[in-house]
């Protein structure tokens, strides 16, 4: 996959780009902040550039308040922007019509529905809004809800509810699917099953834009990621290459005369051999030896400083 996210805008039909953003900006009035000259504006998105290629899973990461939700809502056409150029499936979401909306799927973090309807009724009713929907029964089976098709939505568990949300998002056969914190509240087994579902959607040709605060989820699913902080992209690329060539350099630590020492090196085996020659105990063991390779979470935390990857709903 290409890792260049700053190339100039291109014709999506020609270059295979599903989504292109240049200089995106959105500000809000600060709560309780007013002066003699008017209300103070706070930038939620501050000059953001993005490209998402067709057929990839693209993850948007960032701490609460980074601007993830605002960005995604602009891309979905649910929120107006202050400035910038946005192309989603070749159209500007702010002016796109019903035909464009039928080409996207949206799975929001907090969904609302008619709880008295059954799963089958919800999916079947939603399918009628699209010109070329998938077969509702096949969609229900694809998300693992066939046994619950006659169950009322209010009686579903959290994991089943999110699977229904995905069913509603994909029944219209979208070219581009937005998933906003899709596995919040899942247990580990349900989360893994959901990952398999998302991967299968990508393999079937869908483009997926995912926001998540689970770094393991981004590492497992995403072809590329972008880290947003204070409304700006601070890093982007493939998960294993995020942060540059030295971000994942292994770290060797050990005890020497009771003092913790460390060495970052791309040749940890040779380093351990040298350390063993210098400080190994009579039995050959190196006191307190650890060799670790920074994870995506480690790199992420370095990029955003003291931010927190976990959290609840995005504060815009």
UniProtKB/TrEMBL annotation:
Keyword field: Antibiotic resistance, ATP-binding, Nucleotide-binding, Transport
UniProt-recorded Gene Ontology molecular function terms: ATP binding
Matches recorded under SMART domains: AAA
Transmembrane segments: none
NAD is among the record's keywords: no
Domain ABC transporter as annotated: residue spans: 19-255
Protein name per UniProt: ABC transporter ATP-binding protein
Lineage: Bacteria, Bacillati, Actinomycetota, Actinomycetes, Micrococcales
């Amino acid at each position: 996959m290409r890792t260049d996210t700053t190339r100039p805008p291109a014709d999506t039909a020609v270059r295979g780009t599903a989504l292109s953003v240049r200089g995106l900006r959105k500000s809000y009035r600060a709560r309780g902040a007013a002066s003699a000259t008017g209300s103070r504006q706070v930038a939620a998105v501050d000059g953001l550039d993005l490209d998402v290629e067709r057929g990839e899973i693209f993850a948007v990461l960032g701490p609460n308040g980074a601007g993830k939700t605002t960005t995604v809502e602009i891309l979905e056409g649910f929120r107006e922007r202050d400035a910038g150029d946005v192309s989603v499936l070749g159209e500007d979401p702010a002016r796109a019509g019903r035909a464009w909306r039928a080409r996207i799927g949206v799975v929001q973090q907090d969904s609302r529905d008619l709880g008295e309807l059954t799963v089958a009724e919800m999916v079947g009713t939603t399918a009628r809004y699209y010109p070329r929907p998938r077969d509702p029964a096949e969609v229900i089976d694809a998300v693992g809800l066939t046994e619950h098709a006659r169950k009322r939505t209010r009686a579903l568990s959290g994991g089943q509810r999110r699977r229904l949300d995905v069913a509603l998002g994909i029944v219209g056969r979208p070219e581009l699917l937005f998933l906003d914190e899709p596995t919040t509240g899942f247990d580990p087994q349900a989360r893994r099953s959901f990952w398999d579902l998302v991967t299968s959607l990508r393999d079937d040709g869908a483009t997926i834009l995912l926001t998540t605060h689970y770094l393991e989820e981004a590492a497992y699913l995403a072809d590329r990621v972008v880290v947003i902080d204070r409304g700006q992209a601070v890093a982007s690329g493939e998960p294993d290459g995020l942060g540059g060539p030295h971000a994942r350099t292994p770290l060797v630590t050990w005890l020497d005369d009771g003092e913790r020492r460390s060495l970052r090196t791309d040749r940890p085996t040779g380093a351990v051999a040298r350390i063993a020659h210098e400080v190994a105990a009579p039995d050959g063991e190196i006191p307190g030896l650890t060799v670790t390779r920074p994870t995506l979470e480690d790199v992420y935390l370095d990029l955003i400083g003291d931010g927190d990857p976990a959290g609840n709903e995005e504060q815009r």
